[in-house]
Design brief:
The complex is a heterodimer of chains A (about 300) and B (about 270). By secondary structure, chain A is mainly α. Chain A is about 80% helix and about 0% strand. The termini of chain A are far apart. In chain B, a hairpin with a 1-residue loop joins strand 9 and strand 10. Classes of the chains: A mainly alpha (about 300), B alpha/beta (about 270).
């Protein structure tokens, strides 16, 4: 065993594995529901909550900061809903406003904290850039519990969530509380964001949601497999990214995302059927076959 | 959901025998987006099972009428009842075919998955479709002639096949009233005939089918009842009496481009008489 693979690293790995699975699964719903950018906005919107939690508690308290992030994100969701209902501002513009305003407020609060004596700045910056080595055992208990809870809810309401993600109007006509289910999906997205923040960081959290789902989409046409593969990609990049980060002393969030991106590019190129290589080969094969049939003077195939 | 199911199965036969309860009762319905009314004071009552065509120019509120009935858009005023009850308590008796453009066809589900969604209403919370539901969904796919394609991802279907997938999903709902938003849009002639014969089939089983329809020429041949809509309801009733030149002119205004189709439509009706 090498020096970086200590007991604490194993604890950290357990945490990132679960949060990787969690953001992989929830990310699928976000991408299919066209909410990738909402994930990004919610991650940024969490910063003021994290800072306020720090200011109120007076020290770096992991769970309090997660709660702060969640409440602040909830406020962000409300902000988006109000913009949608009462203004004619387009969704993407609303998301951009939410992202920058909340993040700006968070940066202001952060500098207030920095100017305080006995500053716990390091704890805050780990939420911005992601720093899984700073995660301790008690934090992992929270991450484990929350991730497991999120995955359990998805497992239980798999049919309902899939229906609402695909065709919310049909769901409503059938008598499902479509808006409530959609809101639940939004809350799960926020939950996945909050769980991932300490390891991946605010800046890169959106990628953790989008890239595993986008990579997995190359390999399957089935919803259940998509969730499984995306969870796998999330877990894999969490584990490999954390190990690389510890070995080379670079920020965890960045490492996890780069591993994730590697999965994506491998999928993009080499996935059977939908990958770039497979598509080029298939086109050539088809062209050759058709040319041969043409030369043989055959009728065009149906 | 489960409670609703038990109420529904016991109450359904008695309601069916009570002829006086209208199948659909739309009363004083107005719908608006901001200050602009899309539907104005609509009254529509259906007492007998029928094939009803909802006809009118673009922006006349045809889709909105269906969505208003189904509770998908808020009403400014008025009320809707199905079998004498609020729509929310009649969900299991309603089948819905939305416009094809309303969903993302790249969504990673198979044809069979989509048709199975029709059975979710009777399954209730958390239960997954089992062998019974799958067998029934396959039967529905047989009815629309898509059985061979059940494993296809829905994006790999042609427009007509996608339309038939939605139709099979509605059939899987085993409803008594069906609402279909342009089921003939973008399908070829053969598919259109296949879909029409399915509608006739439903009608013969005593079901009621409301169809948003675009093609004036086929109205007299397809529908025994018609509702002419242009924000207001210009006229509704048996196609033979309501679908006439005067009403059509009123529905379509003086638009020149329509006049030719219009005369063709009336001619077609003369022939069916």
């Amino acid at each position: 065993m090498t020096d970086w693979l200590t007991y604490n690293s194993l604890i950290v790995l357990q945490g990132v594995t679960l949060l990787g699975a969690c953001s992989g699964v929830i990310g699928c719903f976000a991408v299919l529901r066209r909410r990738s950018l909402v994930g990004d906005a919610l991650a940024h919107a969490s910063l003021p909550g994290v800072c306020l939690a720090y200011l109120i508690i007076g020290e770096k308290h992991f769970f309090a900061m997660l709660i702060g992030a969640f409440l602040s994100g909830l406020l962000g969701i409300g902000f988006l809903a109000i913009l949608r209902k009462f203004t004619r501002i387009k969704e993407d513009a609303g998301i951009a406003i939410l992202l920058s305003v909340f993040f700006g407020a968070g940066i202001v609060l952060r500098s207030v904290i920095q100017q305080m004596p006995a500053s716990g700045r390091a704890g805050l910056d780990s939420f911005i850039f992601g720093h899984s080595a700073g995660i301790v055992q008690s934090d992992v208990h929270w991450i484990t519990g929350l991730s497991a809870g999120t995955l359990l809810i998805v497992l239980l309401c798999y049919k309902e969530f899939r229906l609402v993600a695909f065709d919310p109007e049909f769901a409503q006509v059938q008598g499902w509380p479509a808006r409530l289910l959609d809101f639940a999906l939004m809350l799960l997205l926020l939950g996945a964001v909050v769980i991932g923040l300490p390891a991946v960081g605010i800046l890169l959290m959106a990628a953790m949601l989008i890239i595993p789902a986008a990579a997995a989409r190359f390999w399957t046409q089935r919803f259940s497999f998509l969730l499984l593969l995306s969870a796998g990609a999330g877990m894999g990049s969490g584990i490999v990214g954390t190990i690389l980060s510890a070995k080379f002393g670079v920020p965890t969030g960045a490492c996890i995302i780069l591993v994730c991106a590697a999965f994506f590019f491998i999928s993009l190129l080499f996935a059977p059927g939908r990958g770039v290589v497979a598509r080029i080969l298939a086109r050539q094969r088809n062209n050759l076959a058709l040319q041969a049939q043409m030369k043989a003077g055959e009728e065009p195939p149906p | 959901m489960n409670a609703m199911h038990t109420v529904d199965s016991s109450a359904a036969p008695t309601i069916k025998h009570a002829v006086k309860v209208p199948i659909l009762d739309v009363h004083d319905v107005t719908v608006a987006y901001h200050r602009k009314p899309v539907l104005w004071d609509i009254d529509l009552t259906l007492t007998q099972p029928c094939l009803l065509g909802i006809v009118g120019p673009n922006g006349a509120g045809k889709s909105t009428l269906i969505k208003a009935i189904l509770g998908l858009v808020p009403l400014v005023s008025g009320s809707v009842q199905i079998f004498g009850q609020p729509v929310t308590s009649q969900r299991k008796r309603i089948g819905y075919v939305p416009q094809r453009e309303s969903v993302d066809w790249e969504f990673p589900v198979s044809v069979l998955d989509v048709v199975l969604m029709g059975t979710y209403g009777s399954l209730g919370w958390f239960r997954r479709p089992g062998a019974t539901e799958k067998a029934w969904a396959r039967q529905c796919l047989d009815m629309v002639g898509l059985r061979d394609l059940e494993d296809r991802q829905i994006g790999q279907l042609s427009g007509g096949q996608q339309q038939r997938t939605f139709l099979a999903r509605a059939l899987a709902q085993q409803a008594d009233v069906y609402f279909m938003d342009e089921p003939f849009a973008g399908v070829d002639a053969a598919t259109e005939r296949a879909i029409f014969s399915l509608l006739v089939n439903l009608r013969e089983q005593g079901k009621t089918v409301l169809v948003v329809h675009h093609d004036l020429r086929t109205v007299p041949a397809y529908f025994d009842q018609v509702a002419l809509l242009n924000v207001r309801l210009v006229g509704s009733g048996p196609t033979a009496t309501v679908f006439n030149e005067g009403n059509l002119r009123q529905t379509y205004g003086g638009r020149l481009a329509v006049l030719e189709t219009l005369s063709q439509a009336v001619e077609a009706q003369e022939r069916t008489k």
